[in-house]
Design brief:
The complex is a heterodimer of chains A (106) and B (121). Chain A is an all-beta fold and 106 residues long. Chain A contains no helices and eleven strands. In chain A, a hairpin with a 3-residue loop joins strand 5 and strand 6. In chain B, the strands form two sheets. In chain B, strands 2, 4, 5, 6, 9, 10 and 11 form a seven-stranded mixed β-sheet that branches. In chain B, strands 1-3-8-7 form a four-stranded antiparallel β-sheet, with no helix packed on it. The chains are: A mainly beta (106), B mainly beta (121). At the A-B interface, strand 4, strand 5 and strand 10 of A face strand 5, strand 9 and strand 10 of B.
């Protein structure tokens, strides 16, 4: 099983600042990686797929990069509605998720 | 509007069974693989099972093999998850989710709101 490790576990950021979230795979997954935003009581929302392609309707402040085993989600200029938990998800082999990064207000 | 609506969650006894359903609308259900993903209290997301568009192929995470069965009725646009031999480790919100592009493995672009499974005697 491909193990996905996200860091940091919690990220404290002020509104308007930039946030960088990391996701590492235990083995190469090419660019078969997605990012989701999850808020309490809501379903996950797809942000990025194929490592760097924004999903429909996702603002340009969300960007993804990486391939192989190292991936990054960057949120440029955090809005109040961006404070949430973010998960990475590899779909190269079966499908596994990272443990999540909580982005909280500093 | 593309929509997935889960039902069937509730309180189950240890060793008991539950059957979850996911009603799909707004897209051609039979063209897409479908999946179940769960989130235990205070935990992250976990892939549980996935089924191909025709229903002939299915895969499961190791912890549920032999206990869970994923199935679908394309004539009724409905996905199912039969859960047997319930254990405390199965307590979670269960989401149905649609992989993009009709593929078995891809990003999930459509999610339901989830149904809660509680296990207690």
């Amino acid at each position: 099983e491909v193990v996905m490790t996200q860091s940091p576990v919690t990220l404290s950021v002020s509104p308007g600042e930039r946030a960088s979230l990391s996701c590492r795979a235990s083995q190469a997954v090419s660019t078969n990686l997605a990012w989701y935003q999850k808020k309490p009581g809501q379903a996950p929302r797809l942000l990025i797929y194929r490592a760097s392609t924004r999903a429909t309707g996702i603002p340009a402040r969300f960007s993804g990069s990486g391939s192989g085993t190292e991936f990054t989600l960057t949120i440029s200029g955090l809005h109040s509605e961006d404070f949430a938990v973010y998960y990475c998800h590899q779909y190269n082999s079966w499908f596994t998720f990272g443990g999540g990064t909580k982005v909280e207000i500093k | 509007e593309v929509q997935l609506v889960e039902s069937g969650g509730g309180l189950g006894q240890p060793g008991g069974s539950l059957r979850l359903s996911c009603a799909a609308s707004g897209f051609i259900f039979s063209n897409y693989a479908m999946s179940w993903v769960r989130q235990a209290p205070g935990k992250g997301l976990e892939g549980v099972a996935i089924i191909g568009a025709s229903g002939f192929s299915a895969e499961y995470t190791d912890s549920v093999k032999g206990r869970f069965t994923i199935s679908r009725d394309n004539s009724k646009n409905t996905l199912f998850l039969q859960i047997n031999s319930l254990s405390a480790e199965d307590m979670a919100i269960y989401y149905c989710a649609r992989p993009m592009g009709g593929l078995m493995t891809h990003a999930f672009d459509v999610w339901g709101q989830g149904t809660v499974v509680t296990v207690s005697s």
